[in-house]
Amino acid sequence: MADETLQPSSADELADIVAQAADAGAALKVQGRGTKDGWGRPVDAPLAVSTAGLAGISLYEPEELVLSAAAGTPISAIRQSLEQHNQFLPFEPPDLGPLWGAEPDSGTLGGVIAANLSGSRRLQAGAARDHLLGFEAVNGRGELFKSGGRVVKNVTGFDLSKLMAGSFGTLGVMTSITIKVLPNPEKTRTVLIYGLNETTGVEALSRALQSPLEVNGAAYLPAPAAARSTVDYVSGSGKSVTAIRLQGPGPSVETRCDEMRALMGEFGEVEELHFHNSKTLWEEIGNVGGLLGEDDSILWRLSVAPTDGPAVAQDIANGCGGEAYFDWGGGLIWLSLPADGGCHDGDVRGAVAAKGGHATLMRAPENVRREVFVFEPQAAAVAGIQANLKTSFDPKLILNPGRMYPETGGGG
User: Fold this and answer.
1) Do the bridges between strand 4-6 and strand 47-50 make them parallel or antiparallel, or are there none, so unpaired?
2) Exposed (0-12), middle (13-18) or buried (19+): which is 189, by Cβ within 10 Å?
3) Residue 302, pLDDT above cutoff 60
4) 311, 186 in Cβ contact below 8 A?
5) How far apart are CA 71 and CA 137, in angstroms?
6) Which of 132, 242, 369, 381 is most buried per CB count within 10 Å?
7) What is the pLDDT of residue 370?
């Protein structure tokens, strides 16, 4: 925990703060509004620096599908501006802050990009980093730097945007971010199949994704998770729910939805959600918390080949209990384990590693996050590359030291 939080109001002021910390060899905890403090290893630093004072949309050209904003701009403000022009963030960032006790919809654009947060549309649209056109930031020397621009092909040399997205403030403190946006789909429909087991549910999702029907959301909710949904067609079924989303022009969606219902009819009872219920369901799936029981449970995010998902989840359940649901066609598993049973690091990572996947500990008490790897342990060669990158951007290791992996220097 930091003893004091500094909130600069300009990029130059932020650069001065970082430069002074570097000169003193003092670690800095980097954050936006602190909504993701419970994700990652605890950062031991005397000072925190917040980008919340760097807020506001500096450029929005709806006809060019591009938006630039300060890193501390609330993601809710970004969405509100986009909605006025019938546009949206195509990578569909989930609101995960409530998992760690933050108020809903209180995160920042910088936090979304720093964590590379992407929702259910990732299987079609790509991750947050794929929509990051450029940024400005302060490195660990207190120097301002930038990369990219306002158009997709404006990057020359090494694309630093791919490094910054998902770096959790360990390489630099972003001050301004430029992203690509898209027009809202004209129509949304979600086809539901009731009562499938995990294996058959994922098989149905694979069949849907392999079809030419342009699926951009594919999830499986076991009965306990489905029962917690606020959508009556989901919770009221009393059964597991396999969900498949279709979006686009109205006539196209209607035709594709009819074809999808026919394709999925061989698996079981089929229902259909329209726009508002679809929107609610996919927000619940992306935001996680409401579908997985207790607020103090240990939470993992697992990434495996979709066809391996059911076996991995069952293997962990046999030894650890808990419950799970599947997104991204079965390739993303959200796993909740009882808080009184420990985080089961060895069981979880062992089951995932056996299938060539990786695991991230998303929520656990601070003492647990100090003791185990939060992010997937790296091979020696990869760890060496990451260490070299870290020292290139942050020679004294003062920016969020130890947030992702244990390291020395900078008070970490």
Assistant:
1) parallel
2) buried
3) yes
4) no
5) 9
6) 242
7) 95
Tokens coding 349: 């990572």
Q: Which CATH class is domain 295-371?
A: alpha beta
The token duo for 33 is 């509004």
CATH topology of domain 57-183: 3.30.465
- The alpha-helical segments, DSSP class H, found in 58-179 are 75-83, 109-114, 122-125, 161-164
Q: Where are the domains of the chain?
A: 57-183, 187-287, 295-371
Structure-token pair, residue 85: 């022009």
* Identity at 137, one-letter amino acid code: A
244: its two tokens: 């498949």
Distance set, CA 139 to CA 145, 311, 388 (Å): 7, 43, 14
3-state secondary structure of 113: helix
Q: What is the pLDDT of residues 311-358, one digit of tens each?
A: 999 999 998 999 999 999 999 999 999 988 889 999 999 999 999 999
* Integer angstrom CA distances of residue 400 from 14, 152, 291, 335: 15, 30, 31, 27
Neighbours of 61 (CB within 10 A): 12
pTM of the entire predicted model: 0.94
User: Rg of the chain's alpha carbons, rounded to an integer?
Assistant: 21
The phi, psi pair for 394, rounded to 5°, reads: -140, 75
Long-range contacts of 345-351 (CB under 8 A, 24+ apart): 345/372, 345/373, 347/316, 347/319, 347/320, 348/300, 348/302, 348/316, 348/320, 349/373, 349/376, 349/377, 351/312, 351/315, 351/316
| Architecture of domain 187-287 in this structure | 2-Layer Sandwich (3.30)
pLDDT tens-digit map of 54-100: 999 999 999 999 999 999 999 999 999 999 999 999 999 999 999 99
